[in-house]
Structure formats: C-alpha cells, structure tokens
Design a protein that fits this description.
By secondary structure, the protein is α/β, with parallel strands linked by helices. Strands 3-4-6-7-8-9-10-16 form an 8-stranded parallel β-barrel, surrounded by 5 helices. Helix 5 packs across helix 6, helix 7 runs parallel beside helix 8 and helix 9 runs parallel beside helix 11.
Length: 378
C-alpha cells in the first residue's frame, strides 16, 4: 500500500484517479464519511492489489476494556494475536478483583475470531489508581501472593483466558527485586498449565534511570522472569504535560536501543499508541489538561476547523493547530506515516511484535497497513 499526503486543491476523486483506485476503497480504508472532505497535510492510505511476497511474522496484541463497542471489537480481532482484557485487580491479602464490566462477551468473541484473550493484572486501588502499597504487600507477603496466584489460575481456567499480562507501575525502588521474583513465581506456576506470562515495562533508556516510574522496573530481571515484555513506548505527550508527540520515534528508538542490551529481541514487543491529545493553549503547568482523542477524530477536527496538518520530521508524528470559540488548540496524534516508522523499528531490531494501547477506537488504516507489512501470528 502507498501513503499519500493531501495537497492544496486535492479531492478524493482526483487522488483516486491518479492511483486508479475507487473512491470508495480509499474512503473505507481511511474511515472517511461523505462528502469526503480532506485536510491539507492529511495522510491517506491508498489500497492496492496486494502483491504475493514473504512477510515477517509478528505477534500483535491490543489492550481493551470489557465495555468496548461490539463493532469495533469484531473488526479489530482478526488483526490481533492476543487481546488483553483490562483489567483485574487484587487486594492486599491476595483476593482477585474482576473488572466492573463482565468480560465474558469479549473473551468469547476473541476466541471466535482467532485472537487469544489475556488477563491483565494491575495493582489498582478503589480510586482506580496504581497503588504501590498493594505491590509491596503482594511481593513480600508470600501467603497472600500464593493465594493471588491460585485465584488467577483458577479464574483463567473458568473464564477461558490464554495467558496473563502483568502491568504494575510506580513500583518502589526497594521492591525492584521482589517484583521480578513475583513475575517469575507466576510464570513458574502458569507455565505447566500452558499459560504464557508477559510484563509491561516503563520506557527506560538506562539501567539507573531515576524516577518512580522507572526505578522499580529492572529490564534484565523482568526479561528473564517473563515469557515476553511490552515496552510502553508512549506518553511522552500526556494529559498533564505540554503539547508534544505521544510517541516520538527518536525517543522510542532510545528505549529500544537500551532494551535490546538487556532482553532478547525475541521477547520484546513495541508499544504503539492508538490515540492522540488535544491541548488548549497556552499550556499552564499544573492547570492544563489535554483531552484524549482518537486518530480518526483528530483528522475530523482538522477538517472541521480548516487546519493544515503538519508533520514533525524529528518525532515523525503529525500535529496541527486550530481555534475554537476563541481558544487556541494544539493536537498531536498518530497517522499511517508515524505508524509506518514504528513498523520499521520493529523490523530493524527484529522485535517479537507490538502491543497497542488501546484498541477502543477503530483505526482501520493502521490495521490495513499492518497486514500489508507483516504476517500476523495466530
């Protein structure tokens, strides 16, 4: 497939004529709605007749909440190896806490579509925030830890999960080794039952990186403890931070370059964001809060506000500015150009695959580009 960037004077009809492709095919691939208005600088994926060629096989995972819309779920599942159900929690004494929304529909649909569902385990407290007290308790209290593992394995069998993904964040530095030992303990008991164990890693660029998000995550120990890891290579641009790319490729590359020195490449999945942010300007630290938007929604905003979409050549990410009700906005998001750069990185370093946070909103062009680039392991 080709990527075309819209120029002044282009229409969908004129673009379709140049590539000898039906207008409806381009509209479908890019989720365009009649009358097919375009934004200058918008990247379009142009469908072509697929050439038979050998493609590298990769694992593809997507995170989703159990309340995902059914149409989004059913269209996305064929492109996934696994879908991770977000999320199960636990108490300090090791009681497993299921999601508030029943996940049976999601699990059953996944199996029907050939995508294996994974249980995601997070140390969320009652407010829905990561709680490092829970992490300390479960990693040091072996009785509570064993009780939790017993409950996890029982729930996986009853619910029909195919594996478990452990996503603990803000781990205290003093719990670094105990956390890796917890992951290894889960894997030791899950492996005989055929359940793989993956672990999510904050995006570190060195072993001694400072900060609560990083110090408790030991890449080498966790790479040894788990079957696979996900590099959470996103959130440079985030809700409470200043406007910038969510996953700038130069920063993502730094994380990968460090990760491959500590973990075998065959175990590493690259995190890819399926969202963007809309900031109001001026940005005020401690006050400003960006709004999360979908990638298709971002383009719709640009079209509605007659904004020109630009492309940062360092971050390799699209962005634009617009005004609404007298307020200036800055938007950063993902398009097929920025996604293609991340695919290149996976190929360059021979990584195992990728994991999307998250797949609650459909980004069809991404999936079509994915199958044009890789073979999905099922």
């Amino acid at each position: 497939m080709q990527i075309y960037v819209v120029k002044q004077g282009d229409s969908l009809e004129s673009i379709a004529a140049v590539f000898a492709v039906d207008v409806e095919e381009i509209a479908y691939a890019n989720q365009l709605v009649s009358p097919y208005q375009l934004a200058i600088g918008q990247a379009l994926l142009i469908p072509e007749i697929e050439q038979i060629r050998q493609k590298r096989a990769v694992y593809v995972n997507g995170y989703a909440y159990p309340y995902i819309r059914n149409d989004v779920l059913t269209e996305t599942l064929p492109y996934l190896t696994n879908i991770s159900v977000f999320s199960y929690g636990f108490t300090a004494n090791g009681e497993l806490v299921p999601p508030q929304t029943d996940d049976s529909r999601m699990i059953n649909e996944a199996w029907m579509q050939g995508a294996a569902p994974l249980m995601v385990l997070t140390p969320f407290d009652q407010s829905g925030m990561f709680n490092n007290y829970l992490i300390s308790e479960i990693t040091h209290n072996m009785e509570a830890q064993q009780h939790l593992i017993d409950q996890i394995l029982a729930a996986m069998e009853v619910k029909g999960f195919a594996g478990i993904d452990i996503d603990f964040e803000y781990i205290l530095p003093q719990d670094r080794v105990a956390y890796a030992e917890f992951v290894a303990n889960v894997r030791a008991q899950a492996a005989p039952l055929g359940y793989p164990v993956s672990v999510a890693l904050a995006p570190k660029t060195s072993a001694d990186q400072k900060g609560l998000l990083y110090e408790g995550k030991d890449y080498k120990l966790l790479g040894e403890a788990a079957d696979s890891v996900l590099l959470m290579t996103y959130e440079w641009g985030y809700t409470y931070g200043p406007p910038m790319a969510v996953a700038p490729i130069n920063k993502v590359r730094e994380v990968v370059e460090y990760a491959v020195t500590e973990i075998p490449t065959k175990k590493i999945d690259l995190g890819i964001p399926n969202y963007g942010y809309d900031w109001t300007l001026p940005f005020v630290k401690g006050t400003s809060k960006a709004r999360t938007i979908g990638n298709v929604e971002a383009v719709e905003i640009a079209v509605a506000s007659n904004a020109v979409i630009e492309f940062d050549q360092t971050a390799m990410s699209p962005f634009f500015h617009y005004e609404k009700e007298g307020v200036q906005h800055e938007v950063w998001f993902e398009d097929v150009r920025s996604i293609k750069e991340k695919f290149h990185l996976i190929t360059e370093y021979g990584l195992r695959g990728m994991g999307y946070w998250q797949v609650m909103k459909l980004f069809r062009a991404n999936w079509l580009l994915l199958v044009d680039t890789f073979e999905i392991i099922k």
